[in-house]
């Protein structure tokens, strides 16, 4: 049996180049140095990138969307060979194969499972057997309440700025609103965060940490295609598109001629039906199980069908760097990304920027007042 979370106490001998820890409910819950998380992004959050983020003091989440149960097991073991720090796996429960991958994660006693789009009480129950934790990704309060009832230990709150499937509300409003309504729950802010100033801002707004998907995707260790990394580096914050026609769920992607065309219109019923059959066949689901869904739960089947069809375009951009025929998920934070650093260097820079931003803010309020507040909080 694995020790689920290492002690959060720092080692006696620390690398002198490491920035001091930032202590929040997130770092205390997961036993990490810094409140920074790599979300599970398909074909990007692989074992190497996950381990790099965890080794740098954050928490990496493995993307299991494209993986079979056996590949998920191999990936978990690979991560464990690369790091002894906390990590997790992602499970988008609406999608085919996700439940099987989550079961593997429970068998392997993975410290964290990050769930979205589905009922996850059984996962929370499984995690409780060995002291694991569940993060639920949500975009609104209704889903957050459902997730907490199902046993979520923390919420990842996805704002409108985020890559892929963000919510309707921006992080600037979403974080303080969630903090007010869920005061006792650790909150991770996702959507719009790529710098230390962003981390400091999120903590000020009431978050306990941030997820940085787009930023971590554009690092040296990330398997994202080099051409796509360079396209993100050279794009600004206004060069993204948001809509639901691409993969069936409202999503934000890099603005290219191909993505503009993909976002234009919803395909006809026969196309959706064909794609649903293809998606089902790809994961070994018999066709007779698909037909009733097409007739009674068309919206849900549309999402699964479109998601399956979108997979090819996403892979072309993400894996091959082909932005002519591919479509790349990316957040508005791409406007803040202008280099391709090593993960550890990036994390240290973000933490230093956050500390500097915090100190700069403190001087705005007058030192006497800050001193008084510090004495009161002792």
Write a structural description.
The protein has 378 residues and is of the alpha/beta class. It is built from 16 helices and ten strands. The chain has helices at 25-30, 47-55, 69-82, 98-107, 121-128, 141-149, 171-181, 196-205, 213-217, 226-233, 257-262, 269-282, 287-296, 298-318, 343-364, 367-377, and strands at residues 36-38, 59-62, 87-92, 112-116, 133-138, 154-158, 187-190, 209-211, 240-243, 251-254. Strands 1-2-3-4-5-6-7-8 form an eight-stranded parallel barrel, surrounded by seven helices. Strands 9-10 form a two-stranded antiparallel sheet. Helix 8 packs across helix 15 and helix 12 crosses helix 14. The longest helix is centred in the last third of the chain and has 22 residues, at 343-364. It is globular. It starts with 24 loop residues before the first helix and ends with a helix.
Give the helices and strands, then pairings.
Elements: H1 25-30, E1 36-38, H2 47-55, E2 59-62, H3 69-82, E3 87-92, H4 98-107, E4 112-116, H5 121-128, E5 133-138, H6 141-149, E6 154-158, H7 171-181, E7 187-190, H8 196-205, E8 209-211, H9 213-217, H10 226-233, E9 240-243, E10 251-254, H11 257-262, H12 269-282, H13 287-296, H14 298-318, H15 343-364, H16 367-377
Parallel strand pairs: 1-2, 1-8, 2-3, 3-4, 4-5, 5-6, 6-7, 7-8
Antiparallel strand pairs: 9-10
Helix pairs in contact: 2-3, 3-4, 8-15, 12-13, 12-14, 13-14
Shape: globular
Question: What is the radius of gyration computed over CA atoms, rounded to a whole number of angstroms?
Answer: 21 Å
Overall pLDDT confidence = 87
Count every helix, treating DSSP H or I runs of 4 or more residues as helices.
Answer: 16
Distance between the termini: 39 Å
Arrangement of strands in the largest sheet? 1-2-3-4-5-6-7-8
Instruction: Please mark out the parts with pLDDT under 50 across 5 or more consecutive residues, or reply none.
Output: 8-16
H and E string: HEHEHEHEHEHEHEHEHHEEHHHHHH
The structural class is alpha/beta
Q: For this entry, what is the oligomeric state of its chains? A: single chain
Largest sheet composition: 8 strands, parallel, barrel
Determine the fraction of residues in helical runs and give it as a percent range.
Answer: 40-55%
| Percent of residues in beta strands | 5-15%
Number of strands: 10
């Amino acid at each position: 049996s694995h020790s689920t979370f290492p002690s959060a106490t720092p080692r006696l001998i620390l690398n002198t180049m490491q920035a001091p820890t930032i202590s929040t409910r997130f770092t205390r819950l997961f036993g990490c140095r810094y409140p920074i998380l790599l979300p599970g992004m398909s074909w990007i959050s692989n074992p190497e990138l996950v381990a790099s983020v965890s080794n740098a003091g954050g928490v990496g989440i493995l993307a299991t969307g494209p993986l079979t149960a056996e590949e998920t097991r191999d990936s978990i073991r690979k991560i464990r060979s690369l790091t002894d720090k906390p990590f997790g796996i992602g499970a988008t429960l609406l999608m085919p194969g996700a439940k099987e991958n989550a079961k593997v994660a429970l068998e392997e006693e993975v410290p964290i499972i990050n769930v979205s789009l589905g009922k996850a009480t059984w996962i929370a129950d499984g995690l409780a057997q060995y002291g694991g934790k569940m993060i639920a990704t949500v975009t609104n309060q209704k889903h957050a309440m459902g997730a907490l009832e199902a046993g979520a230990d923390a919420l990842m709150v996805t704002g409108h700025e985020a890559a892929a499937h963000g919510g309707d509300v921006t992080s600037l409003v979403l974080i303080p609103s969630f903090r007010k309504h869920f005061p006792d729950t650790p909150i991770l802010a996702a959507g719009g965060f790529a710098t230390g100033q962003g981390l400091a801002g999120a903590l000020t707004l009431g978050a306990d940490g941030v997820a940085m998907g787009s930023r971590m995707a554009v690092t040296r260790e990330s398997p994202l295609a080099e051409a796509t990394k360079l396209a993100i580096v050279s794009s600004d914050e206004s060069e993204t598109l948001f809509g639901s026609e691409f993969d069936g769920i409202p999503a934000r992607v890099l603005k290219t001629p191909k993505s503009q065309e993909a976002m234009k219109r919803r395909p006809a019923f026969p196309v959706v039906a064909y794609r649903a059959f293809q998606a089902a066949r790809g994961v070994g689901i018999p066709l007779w199980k698909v037909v009733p869904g097409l007739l009674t739960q068309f919206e849900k089947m549309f999402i699964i069908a479109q998601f399956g069809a979108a997979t090819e375009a996403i892979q072309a951009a993400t894996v091959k760097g082909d932005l002519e025929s591919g479509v790349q998920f990316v957040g508005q934070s791409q406007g803040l990304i202008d280099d391709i650093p090593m993960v550890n260097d990036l994390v240290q820079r973000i933490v230093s920027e956050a500390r500097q931003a915090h100190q700069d803010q403190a001087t705005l309020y007058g030192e006497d007042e800050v001193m008084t507040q510090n004495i009161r909080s002792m």
